[in-house]
Amino acid sequence: MRYAEEMGFEAVWQAESRLVRDAIVPMAAYAAATERIHVGSGVINNWTRNIGLLASTFLTLDDLAPNRIICGIGAWWDPLAKSVGIERRNPLQAMRETVEIFKRLLNMERVTFHGEFHHVENIELDVVHGRREPRNVPIMIGATGPKMMELAGEIADGIVLNYCVPVEYNDVAMDHLAAGARKAGRSMDDLERPQLVVCSVEHDHDMAIDATRVLLTQYLAQQPHIAKASGVSNDTVAEIQSILGWPATHEQIQTAKHLVPEELIYRITASGTPDEAVAKVQEYIAHGATCPILYPVGGNMKLLIETFCPQC
After folding, report:
1. Of 173, 194, 205, 219, whose CB count within 10 A is highest?
2. pLDDT at 312
3. Rounded to an integer, what distance in angstroms lies between the CA atom of residue 248 and that of residue 80?
4. pLDDT digits over 83-110, tens only?
5. Could you give the residue ranges of the DSSP H alpha helices within the chain?
């Protein structure tokens, strides 16, 4: 992290995806160990933390790293949400209410709100010691579907564009984002548009491709919204799902990974040699992303940082 900061990177983002690791603890570690780099959640979900806890969590992170914290938040996905007892009904309204109250609480307002999902009565962030002024925590909605993209354009500071999608996907995303921005009297210039990009960089092209194939095998089977956005065939997804359990074992992934075609890896990730990875990331930027959020899936991390180093 310190090396990335030293090399001029703008931000580090911490994912919170499957039941693997919480995002907030490492974000706090990154914030405490750095001086300049921004720290974002990429992304947490709006279902598992009540709205008061969500706001106080980001207030605390902002205390650790003032004006360097970004809240990336998404609507989560099934079957994981359902498996832990959460019914993701009307996700657009749930996100709208979350963002509205979150903004007001971090603006140090006293809030009463009774909606479909959130019911709060006369609450505010109770800062006894420290800064009581409104906090600057941009909200980026992690959106995959067109309606959530439009909502992001309307109510958020930006969008976290998803990974494992072809660059053409971005063209449609920009249209929906712009439509949402127009509803709020804004333009695309008012919105940040960072994009997650799966990235594996090696001087050995084949090693980089194989590392990415392992990740795609797991994600195509377990995250259907990503599989749909990637354009991979339903038959391929079904065949991978028939092999993988939950959670998938190393042996199952190795058995199924040959089902992920190499052409798909080239189409939806930035994997290969340094030159190949940089060229693919530039395609995403040419199609509307404002900057990449590099999602390393193995390979040489030092080489990845040096490949995309802003100061090199």
Report:
1. 173
2. 66
3. 13
4. 999 999 999 999 999 999 999 999 999 9
5. 2-6, 24-33, 51-64, 80-83, 91-106, 146-155, 167-183, 205-222, 224-230, 234-243, 250-256, 262-268, 274-286, 301-307
